[in-house]
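Morning F.,

Quick status update on the modeling queue. The single chain you submitted on Monday has been processed. Sequence for confirmation:
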Amino acid sequence: MDWPFQCCVLPSFVSDGDGDFLKSLKAELLGLEFYEKNNDLYQFSQSDDLKKLESCYISQFRTFLHDCCLPFLRSVSGIELTDTIDMTCSRYDHSHTLLCHDDELEGRRIAYTFYLVPLWTAEDGGQLDLFDVNAHGQPKDVVRSILPSWNKLVFFDVNLVSFHQVSEVLSTSKSRVSVNGWFHGPPIKRPHPYLEPPLAFAAPNCLSLEELDDWVNPVYLDIGVQHQIRRQFEKESQIQLPDFFLEEKYLQICEELQACHCRWVTQGPPNKRHIHTAAVESIPPISAYCQTFLCSEPFCRLLAHVTGLDLARNVVKPPIEDDEDGSGSSGSDDDDSCENAAQQGTRAAAAVVPDDAKHTETSQHTNVGMVEEESNSPVALCHAQIQHWQPGDYTLISDTDPEVGEYALDAAAYFCCEDWCPTYGGTTVYIAKDEDEELLSVTPSPNCLTLVYRDRETLRFTKYLNHSAENARAGEFYSMTMVYKECRHSVT
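Structure tokens below.
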């Protein structure tokens, strides 16, 4: 097939008589040690490189690839392929997937997959999906799907538009086993990558400070609690605030979002993200006002006070002082209380309030540490979205992401995820650039506001939501995500 890119499918590829060779090959492969591969792009199990393994059937198959397949591919492709052939065994089990990518790396010229699967149907998932591209050369839609089958070879030219994926394996009883890799040749020249338009940021909305009383749990409007939150945030650059909104407001937003009044727009391209965001004109009134509030001057003042960031003008942010015993904040009981509050929900949220603060009147909370502005010039810029997360959604790390390389405060509030499990996906992960180790993982939690400050070397992605999420009460959740930038870090 020539569309969407050159790809060849050869069923019954190996002449195997009674089938003993391929059965023995599969048994030998499954006897190897497999290692879990799990990051933003994929989750599956893989063997070590098979290029030098001397097992009987594996070595014979490797010789077959080199002596028979390599000359054939040189002939049909016209590519001056070298003798280098990558070869591994991959096993995809339930919920495993490999998301959209183009395979172009380190001289890879022809990708191949040889399937050793049991009887397989479309209902089992695990198909090889091929994407077409848009006017910018970015992947657009799945336009062909190739079903795995026993003794089938698939190979295709690795080029600028060879975007493909392995769809999620839905079978709970079958494994998608294959031998796969690349034939190498002269590297192809890549043009400069397409750069997406930057996110649209705006100055905070003008609202009254009293709006804080109408939306926010009074626990978080107390000066003592704000002091504890700021102390933890300045130490860890992140915090989770459970039971953040007044319960009545939280339930109203849940009801609105679940009523399906929003028009959800799919956001791509698939090699960077697959998410659904609410069209602004379709957002129901309470949810729309909440989004306005979260991008307002009063809310930015609250954020400035609890994070120490310059997100509002003339905010009184008392210095974080050492405890009386001189031990500093790292060993204080207040720190422990605040950390517990970020992890344990309603009871912990009450626990962060000092005894002498629990009786403070709400009317005194909203103006603590805050004074009126004297200038109309914004100190911060905001961007907000309402997102609907369901199986198949994800975001990926990309060097060309418009948010990469910026200082910013990420905030996310979650709705309708009362029994969400991390194994469903939907976890937002922060990592350091060029590193694999996770710095932080944030699992959706109902009525919880997460604050994370990231620098220019911090990247983030949201794990693919797999179909196990259908076991949850709703099988989906919603989020309001905000990005706040201090104007001293912003280019306007």
